[in-house]
From TrEMBL:
<dbReference type="GO" id="GO:0004799">
    <property type="term" value="F:thymidylate synthase activity"/>
</dbReference>
<dbReference type="InterPro" id="IPR023451">
    <property type="entry name" value="Thymidate_synth/dCMP_Mease_dom"/>
</dbReference>
<keyword id="KW-0489">Methyltransferase</keyword>
<protein>
    <recommendedName>
        <fullName>thymidylate synthase</fullName>
        <ecNumber>2.1.1.45</ecNumber>
    </recommendedName>
</protein>
<dbReference type="GO" id="GO:0032259">
    <property type="term" value="P:methylation"/>
</dbReference>
<dbReference type="GO" id="GO:0006231">
    <property type="term" value="P:dTMP biosynthetic process"/>
</dbReference>
<dbReference type="InterPro" id="IPR036926">
    <property type="entry name" value="Thymidate_synth/dCMP_Mease_sf"/>
</dbReference>
<keyword id="KW-0808">Transferase</keyword>
<dbReference type="InterPro" id="IPR000398">
    <property type="entry name" value="Thymidylate_synthase"/>
</dbReference>
<dbReference type="GO" id="GO:0005829">
    <property type="term" value="C:cytosol"/>
</dbReference>
<dbReference type="InterPro" id="IPR045097">
    <property type="entry name" value="Thymidate_synth/dCMP_Mease"/>
</dbReference>
<feature type="domain" description="Thymidylate synthase/dCMP hydroxymethylase">
    <location>
        <begin position="73"/>
        <end position="236"/>
    </location>
</feature>
<dbReference type="Pfam" id="PF00303">
    <property type="entry name" value="Thymidylat_synt"/>
</dbReference>
């Protein structure tokens, strides 16, 4: 891990993996580098203008966060984004606390995938792929999420929505046969948001590189306000580095093939979130999937979570046995332990 000191205006942190970056960020707050700042949701300690660099974006999981991340929710978000969706029920099934942060409507106004694929009347992901395929030297590929007409507050300072996107834009560059990705965020909650944001956009990064036949470059992540809410500070600064398996899966394939795979998983999720679908039917649906193994590993965690929630323990364990990604199994088993403890308490 590398900690690069800033010039008084910025903080620069670089590491091989997302988990190492998480620990470097935790150390900044543990060392008292944050400043107290009020917000609409409560008091925070904040680092301004923080630049993070992950040299190996495939190692995108923050395994040292305690409590453990919800892996099925993370995967559902990725599918939701790639499908360009904004319906809230798709995600709320996997994270029942989400409406508390993003609102209680049928859609989420700031949905990243909808912003990228539908909101502005152009599929920005597809256009970015086409542009870089034809002109890899381009410096004009920017994926825009922020919409000033709907996201800039009213004149009285009141937010227009409960779900204003924290991600502003992505900047893509091809250099030396590698795809470099820069993600810019106006606001970034270290405990709740950062680990999931890294998963979302490093996955897009890896997929875009694969579609273009490029090597995966560095993932850069700039948070203009990197903060922790007062109630989560102890959880972050008490984090201890946890040894976990590496992510050995590569999400390869063409643009068109990827869309078909993601569509298939999305249809599976629609059955997962339909609580009228019984455990046996859901397990049968999983067995019918015909996906490349890396994508099947993702689907296995989603279906395992659906079966866990239905009390289908045997079916859940059978699905997990088909997952060849030991990191995903490790994370899900920790998630099982977390949910079991919560139910006991």
């Amino acid at each position: 891990m590398t900690e690069l000191k800033g010039n008084g205006m910025t903080i620069n942190l670089e590491a091989e993996t997302a988990d190492e970056i998480w620990m470097l960020v935790a150390n900044q707050f543990r060392d008292g580098k944050g400043s107290w700042q009020n917000s609409r949701a409560g008091k925070t300690t904040e680092l301004l203008h923080t630049a993070l660099c992950i040299r190996n974006p495939r190692q995108r999981w923050v395994s040292s966060r305690n409590p453990v991340l919800n892996p099925a929710f993370a995967f559902a978000e990725v599918v939701w984004i790639l499908q360009g969706k904004n319906d809230s029920k798709f995600l709320n099934y996997f994270n029942r606390s989400l409406p508390k942060y993003a609102g209680t409507g049928e859609v989420y106004d700031g949905a990243y995938g909808h912003r990228l694929r539908n909101h502005f009347g152009i599929d920005q992901i597809e256009r970015a792929y086409n542009v870089l395929r034809e002109n890899p030297d381009s410096r004009q590929v920017i994926l825009q999420i922020w919409d000033v007409s709907s996201d800039l507050p009213n004149d009285d300072g009141v937010a227009k929505s409960t779900d204003v996107p924290c991600n502003v834009c992505s900047l893509l560059k091809v250099r030396s046969g590698k795809l470099e990705w820069l993600q810019i965020m106006r606001s970034n909650d270290v405990f709740i948001g950062l680990p999931y944001n890294i998963i979302q956009f490093t996955t897009l990064h890896e997929l875009m590189a694969s579609w273009l036949g490029l090597e995966l470059g560095h993932y850069h992540h700039i948070s203009d306000s990197l903060h922790i809410y007062e109630g989560s500070i102890e959880r972050v600064i008490s984090s201890n580095a946890l040894t976990s398996p590496a992510n050995l899966d590569h999400l390869s394939g063409s643009y068109d093939d990827t869309l078909e795979v993601v569509k298939s998983i999305s249809l599976g999720i629609e059955q997962i979130i339909d609580e009228s679908v019984a455990s046996g039917t859901l397990a049968d649906r999983y067995r019918e999937l015909n996906l490349p193994q890396p994508w099947l590993n993702i689907a296995s965690i989603l279906f395992a979570e659906g079966l866990r929630r239905r009390g289908g323990r045997e079916e859940m364990e059978a699905v997990l046995r088909t997952c060849s990604n030991q990191l995903f199994v490790f994370l899900f088993e920790r998630w099982l332990a977390r949910t079991a403890k919560r139910e006991r308490d």
